[in-house]
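User: quick one - fold this with iron/sulfur cluster bound?
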Amino acid sequence: MSIEAIPVVVINSSENLVAADSGLSGNAPVLLREIAELAHRLLDSGEASAIDLRALPLTPADLEWLRETLGQGQVVATLEAEGESMLSETVCPGVWWVTHHNENGAVASEFIEVTFVPELLKAHPEDVKIGLEHLELLISDLS
Amino acid sequence: MHGPLIDTLARQGVTRRTFMKYCATLASMMALPPAAGRAMAEAMASAPAATRRPSVIWLPFQECTGCTESITRSHSPTLEGLIFDAISLDYQETLMAAAGHQAEEALHAAMKANEGKYLLIVDGSIPLGLDGAYSCIAGKSNLDTLKEVAKGAAAIVAMGSCAAYGGIPKANPNPTGAVSVSDIIKDKPIINIPGCPPIPVVMTGVLAHFLTFGSLPEMDSKGRPKAFYGETIHDRCYRRPFYDQGKFAKTFDDEGARNGWCLFELGCKGPVTYNACATVKWNGGTSWPVESGHGCLGCSEPDFWDAGGFYKALSMPADPLKMASTAAIAGAAAGVAISFANRGKKSAAKSAHETTTLADLEK
Ligand code: SF4
Ligand code: SF4
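Assistant: Sure. Structure tokens for the protein plus iron/sulfur cluster:
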């Protein structure tokens, strides 16, 4: 079961009513700074990085806020691999929202990747070789 | 990322991308940084040919083979199986083709060839009664075998509640004198993966970690991998909002049960049980005990079998799990304590020997 599916009930929240109402924990805005930091690193050294959204204390509302704030960019890629994975670029090029679903459609893991192109989208040279063999087969069938 | 493992997978129709996605998710489940997913993929993909893979020796002691069943019936057979492809499982009585003297030879050959480097997995408890005569393999008591094989191991995985804590064989009155691995072996790193049986992905996660980093993952005070046993069933239970609102099922077929209310009063041990069932679930993520309408038995905690009855609410007296949090839990659910008081009387009238009767179930 995905954690999102658990309705969160905040108890003893009298001191923190505003946050309880919106479901926001206040942890999401901080992440924007971290993403900016990672984008700097990408530009300066070409080093890609990722943030595991499951590893952070984010409520469903936090995640929603973050997703909305980062917005939807121009690229959306779907990967079919034992369940669907969605890799979509946010309005900030180089900042990708990556969601992996399992075969049952539940979210298995979720990341923000700061990279020019997510590693998963690139074809591996070994796979290209296999593709090439297939192409050659297709060509030989032509004659 | 290239190697014999990826080729094997490709032949089984598992693509490189599927593999990378699996490793990313596994790392996330283990609370490792995202880069660890890549590292795991690299380490496992480039695992060398069969002869040089890390050697794993799996010893079964006083056990029911449920742990092996759990692992071999895991979620994505090819992907979980892949972890086993990345290791050389040199001795596993249930899975190996060899038998008798051949099997024993395989064991000793593997021990010699990989001295100081192999990973030892143990399932089942070790009986100390009658000089260990209750369980012997090849004429040797489990105690002697464990000591002998542990000597050359790099680390030990105690698989399941029996190996980790003694489990069901240790249940009162413990006729065979069963003890856990850590009761005997004191000079090796030991990781406990309790559960009756444990969740498959916990096992594969620990193996993947060992393969990638050559060490065991971070553990809690009971020697369990923190990533999977860091929170209680109750912390992550989807029925938790009902608990917080004081809405409890009182029998297994009342309105509350039908509405999916909290199973605390029906004996759920979720509040004192550390395991990942509520998030990882069972049978390929299909469901888990509380979702199917039955409380948690607490199977990943020490002495769960003797915890005073599976259908007895935690807040009732004579709770051998003796977790400090129990009192706080009873207090949190205002009003609930009163109904427990009556039940306390009923149970006090019972003899010390607890059997589960229909009356227990109908509480
Ligand atoms: S007591 Fe059991 S059923 Fe109730 S919320 Fe906790 S874990 Fe879930
Ligand atoms: S829900 Fe509880 S009893 Fe059931 S498998 Fe999980 S830890 Fe064990």
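One thing worth noting: Chain B has a mean pLDDT of 78.
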